[in-house]
Specification:
The complex is a heterodimer of chains A (114) and B (114). Chain A has no helices and eleven strands. Chain A is mainly beta and 114 residues long. Chain A has one domain: Sandwich (Immunoglobulin-like). Chain A is globular. In chain B, the strands form three sheets. In chain B, strands 2, 5, 6, 10, 11 and 12 form a six-stranded mixed sheet that branches. Chain B has a four-stranded antiparallel sheet with strand order 3-9-8-7, with no helix packed on it. In chain B, strands 1-4 form a two-stranded antiparallel ribbon. Classes of the chains: A mainly beta (114), B mainly beta (114).
Chain lengths: 114, 114
């Protein structure tokens, strides 16, 4: 069974440029998460989707970050414009719907903003 | 609010020696507890989880953890480590009946030396 797929794996951009990350969850998983992992820290939830609905985006900086999950499958996370402090790893995870189900993580996208 | 403290940022150990990675949590209600491992340039992988029942939980790769409610701890142990266990280990909590929101500690880097 294929795991969570993310692309690109690495991205280097200059500040003020836009950037987008893509995630394809495990087939059949209706819950999708985007996490931010700063260097030396644990992941922090940015946004959670149940199917195509964003049910928790309280930690998403909405002035520059946006996300979508069209058709309840793939998801895209966008930053516009990027700032130096956005350099981090962006992780995508997916799970089934219940509170006890395991979250499966993708390999992440490492963003460097110059 | 819930929080997780991983007491050691780095743990060096020799191959075939036992290891314990410490995790304490803070919560006014019952929680679910998790240990994830992150190998270099990879996503997080679930080692084990405690939902209820026996306080000793066995996971993959020979790891186990013990839930201690009175000490609000969930320490991870392995009786004999291998070079391949070198990785970052994250302890996390979530709320039963909630929507599976993971709150992570800052991580412990386990370095196994020959």
């Amino acid at each position: 069974e294929a795991g969570v797929v993310q692309s690109p794996r690495y991205k280097i951009i200059e500040k003020k440029q836009p950037v987008a990350f893509w995630c394809n969850p495990i087939s059949g998983h209706n819950t999708l998460y985007w996490y931010l992992q700063n260097l030396g820290q644990g992941p922090e939830l940015l946004i959670r989707y149940e199917n195509e609905e964003a049910v928790d985006d309280s930690q998403l900086p909405k002035d520059r970050f946006s996300a979508e999950r069209l058709k309840g499958v793939d998801s895209t996370l966008k930053i516009q414009p990027a700032e130096l402090g956005d350099s981090a790893v962006y992780l995508c995870a997916s799970s089934l719907l219940t509170s006890t189900d395991t979250q499966y993580f993708g390999p992440g996208t490492r963003l460097t903003v110059l | 609010a819930q929080s997780v403290t991983q007491l050691d940022s780095q743990v060096p150990v020799f191959e075939e020696a036992p290891v314990e990675l410490r995790c304490n949590y803070s919560s006014s209600v019952s929680v679910y507890l998790f240990w994830y491992v992150q190998y270099p340039n990879q996503g997080l992988q679930l080692l084990l989880k405690y939902l209820s029942g026996s306080t000793l939980v066995k996971g993959i790769n020979g790891f186990e953890a013990e839930f201690n409610k009175s000490q609000t701890s969930f320490h991870l142990r392995k009786p004999s480590v291998h070079i391949s266990d070198t990785a970052e280990y994250f302890c996390a909590v979530s709320l039963p009946g909630g929507y599976n929101k993971l709150i992570f500690g800052a991580g412990t880097r386990l370095a196994v030396h020959p």
